[in-house]
């Protein structure tokens, strides 16, 4: 019988919590031959990422993962060999009680948010004593060898390479979304929170010499797009042109299709955690809209990543990219920042490829978790 691993996910807001845990659950089941139970408190968020799922089912199997509604009252179960609480979520009391008297010892992990900050190296793998003699370990994703690494399926980069090598496959995929970019247009994806700089950025693209076709994923940024276009009714499927800029609103697609979308684009504007990592694996230029934290704690995270990312990059190109990211996240002039990036486009593309290659040789997060468990036994 396969060993069982439990992953608990509370959907706080947005799609990052479920995005990360669903991806991790699938990889553990497929590549490490585990019976993975993914406990989710809000299945409606899950259905957005996995459209074939049933938002009403108490339990279901999706892509090899046992997905269960984490509702109330709690269905009592025997804990798995490993339990992962994602992003500090509190496990059901009865489950924790069962951890105190397991048939076999259980490894209890807390999967943390991704950060490029230096302190993460020192906190990854630390143990924290819990009430009743229990112990829980912190597991940090990250960008260095002293962290748990990044989520990356074993076949991801080969699948991407095969996809980009076949222009017909790319074209068919884009057509399935109703996207037909002009031959000389730069294809750009945009997934973002509300952002007051959208108008300045889009003005710059509209006035530029280079045709751009921006694919905007439906969601929180749409209100700003409506304002910029002056069209309150704008909805999924709509396409508009302003000068050199074509804007098209895309539906929210499955996680696998979202990867394909990133692979199709030269420039990906992403947000949060999971799409941010996927854009790094996609390998094109990227712009990160970081999740806002109290007292602007997220700015430090942004700078920590930029510092790592810009290593080995020509100083001027690094400065232009950093300023673009700051402008997007700190409400500074995106028009100017966008123009400043243009002369460095090629350098930045090549750098993105190098960054991907550098990180692709590190152990991925799911493999690191399995290794952590083996070492713990
Ligand atoms: O949705 P997010 O903003 O999630 C955030 C962050 O994780 C943040 O750190 C966390 O604190 C907060 O949630 C609660 O962005 P993220 O992390 O990129 O998650 C989005 C997920 O949605 C990701 O798995 C990609 C997926 N996705 C699709 O599957 N289809 C789509 O069309 C799009 C646009 C995204």
Describe this entry's structure for a reader.
Helices cover 42% and strands 19% of the residues. With 377 residues, the protein is α/β, with parallel strands linked by helices. The chain folds into two domains: 4-150 and 362-376, Rossmann fold; 156-360, Rossmann fold (3-Layer(aba) Sandwich), CATH 3.40.50. The strands form two sheets. An eight-stranded mixed β-sheet has the order 3-4-2-1-5-6-8-7, with helices on one face. A hairpin with a 5-residue loop joins strand 7 and strand 8 (135-139). Helix 1 (16-32) packs across helix 15 and helix 12 runs antiparallel to helix 13 (334-341). It is globular. The mean pLDDT is 96.
What are its keywords?
alpha/beta, Rossmann fold, 2 domains, 8-stranded mixed β-sheet, 6-stranded mixed β-sheet, 14 strands, 42% helix, globular, binds 2'-deoxy-thymidine-beta-L-rhamnose
In terms of topology, how is this protein built?
Blueprint: E1 4-9, H1 16-32, E2 35-40, H2 43-49, E3 59-62, E4 65-69, E5 82-86, H3 93-99, E6 107-111, H4 119-123, E7 127-129, E8 135-139, H5 156-165, H6 167-176, E9 186-190, H7 198-207, E10 212-217, H8 222-229, E11 239-242, E12 245-250, H9 255-264, E13 267-271, H10 274-282, E14 285-289, H11 297-309, H12 315-330, H13 334-341, H14 345-360, H15 365-376
Parallel strand pairs: 1-2, 1-5, 2-4, 5-6, 6-8, 9-10, 9-13, 10-12, 13-14
Antiparallel strand pairs: 3-4, 7-8, 11-12
The structure holds 2'-deoxy-thymidine-beta-L-rhamnose (TRH).
